[in-house]
Write a structure and sequence with these properties.
Number of strands: 11
Radius of gyration: 13 Å
Order of helices and strands: EEEEEEEEEEE
Largest sheet: 7 strands, mixed
Number of helices: 0
Structural class: mainly beta
Shape: globular
Low-confidence stretches: none
Strand content: over 45%
Helix content: under 10%
Length: about 110
C-alpha cells in the first residue's frame, strides 16, 4: 500500500522557518522524482519544488527561489522542504507528490 505522510506544518510568524517532511512507503522511493505542491484557499494547486531521483537535481517556483530548499534522504524514504524567510503569502496546504501518489497535506500558516 502506497503512502506519503507529510509532517512539520504549523503556525509561524513572518520571517520564520519551518521544515516539512514527507515519508514514503509502498513503492521504490529512490527511483521517483519527488515534488512539493501547495494550495492556498481559493487558488489552484501550485508546484513549489522538485528533486530528481538519482542526481538530486532541484527546481523551484520563482516565488520561493532563494528561500526554500528541497532535499531527500533515500535511506529514510523521506523528502524535506526547508522553508525560510516565510511570508504570509506562503500560507497554504503543502502536499508531497510522487508521480500519481499524493500525501494528505500539511497546513502551513504564516501570520503575526
Amino acid at each position: 500500500q502506497v503512502q506519503l505522510v507529510e509532517s512539520g506544518g504549523g503556525l509561524v510568524q513572518p520571517g520564520g522557518s519551518l521544515r516539512l517532511s514527507c515519508t514514503a512507503s509502498g513503492f521504490s522511493f529512490s527511483g521517483y522524482t519527488m515534488r512539493w505542491y501547495r494550495q492556498a484557499p481559493g487558488k489552484e494547486r501550485e508546484l513549489v519544488a522538485t528533486i530528481s531521483s538519482a542526481a538530486g537535481i532541484t527546481n523551484y517556483a520563482d516565488s520561493v527561489k532563494g528561500r526554500f530548499v528541497i532535499s531527500r534522504d533515500n535511506a529514510k524514504n523521506t523528502v524535506y522542504l526547508q522553508m525560510n524567510s516565510l511570508k504570509p503569502e506562503d500560507t497554504a496546504v503543502y502536499y508531497c507528490n510522487a508521480s500519481w501518489y499524493w500525501g494528505q497535506g500539511t497546513q502551513v500558516t504564516v501570520s503575526s
